[in-house]
Design brief:
The structure is a single chain. The protein is of the alpha/beta class. The protein has one domain: Vaccinia Virus protein VP39 (Rossmann fold, 3-Layer(aba) Sandwich), CATH 3.40.50.150. The protein is built from 8 helices and 7 strands; from the N terminus they run αααβαβαβαβαβαββ. It has helices at about 5-20, 25-35, 45-55, 70-80, 95-105, 120, 140-150, 180-190, and strands spanning about 60-65, 85-90, 110-115, 130-135, 155-160, 195-205, 210-215. Strands 3-2-1-4-5-7-6 form a 7-stranded mixed beta sheet, with helices on both faces. Helix 2 packs antiparallel against helix 5 (about 95-105), helix 3 (about 45-55) packs parallel to helix 4 and helix 7 (about 140-150) packs parallel to helix 8 (about 180-190). The longest helix is centred in the C-terminal third of the chain and has 15 residues, at about 180-190. The protein binds 3,4-dihydroxybenzoic acid and magnesium ion. Magnesium ion binds next to loops.
Length: about 220
């Protein structure tokens, strides 16, 4: 083959192979665009990855920090068993409203609750434990979200965070923007945390160059 194939083209190829057309997910995107929400939701392939991580870990309780339009919420909610439960935190009332409508249209509203408010105000009220915590909100607060995630995730539980590479700006975040600084501090804390074992999956594709952090909370059975 001649010429260079773009990362975006390969990402689209992967998504077309592994993510079926889906009226609920398409509807969630449509509702988000109509409401003028920013088009920054996770990609279809990232959604499938979150879904698989939740299923592989047998998650019954999931906490999401940052709902946006509920696209990732639908992926995660679908991975839950009938008696599972997901709580998603969203600061913007308009976003929360759009997400609730999409969850309802997907038939997931009995399992998935959107709580409105600033995550740092809501998190102290939330009690353990969760099998999985997905962080995808204001990057400046990522270090604080991580402290809550470690408190709330069960031993052996999973913590996943979006946008931890940010085009590589986390390598030298000073002077870039507060979000890069937040993501870099988060990564450092994740790497050093005595109760976590973690890695970052670097990603390139239709969302540009970024990364997903994946961490496991140690449990008593660990060495
Ligand atoms: C952006 C992307 C994200 O996935 C996110 O959670 C926030 C912002 C962005 O591209 O600006
Ligand atoms: Mg994100």
């Amino acid at each position: 083959m001649t010429g260079k194939v773009s990362f975006e083209a390969v990402d689209s190829y992967i998504n077309s192979l592994f993510v079926d057309d889906d009226p609920s997910l398409d509807g969630a995107i449509e509702r988000a665009r109509e409401a003028g929400l920013p088009a920054i939701e996770i990609s279809p392939g990232q959604g499938k990855l979150l879904y698989l991580l939740a299923k592989i870990s047998g998650a019954k309780r999931i906490l999401e920090i940052g709902t946006l339009a509920g696209y990732s919420t639908i992926w995660l909610g679908r991975a839950l068993p009938e008696n599972g439960r997901l709580i998603s935190l969203e600061r913007e009332a308009a976003h929360a409203g759009v997400a609730r409508r999409s969850l309802q249209a997907a038939g997931l509203d009995p399992r998935c609750e959107v709580r409105e408010g600033a995550a740092l105000q809501l998190l102290p009220e939330i009690e353990p434990s969760f099998d999985m915590v997905f962080i995808d909100a204001n990057k400046e607060s990522y270090p604080a979200y991580l402290r809550h995630a470690v408190r709330l995730a069960r031993p052996g539980g999973l913590i996943v965070a979006d946008n931890v590479v940010r085009k590589g700006s986390v390598l030298a975040p000073a002077g870039v923007d507060p979000q890069a600084i937040g993501a870099a501090s988060f990564n450092q804390a994740l790497a050093e945390h005595p109760r976590l074992e973690a890695i970052i999956l670097q990603q390139v594709g239709i969302k540009g160059h970024d990364g997903l952090a994946i961490a496991r909370v140690r449990d008593a059975g660990d060495d």
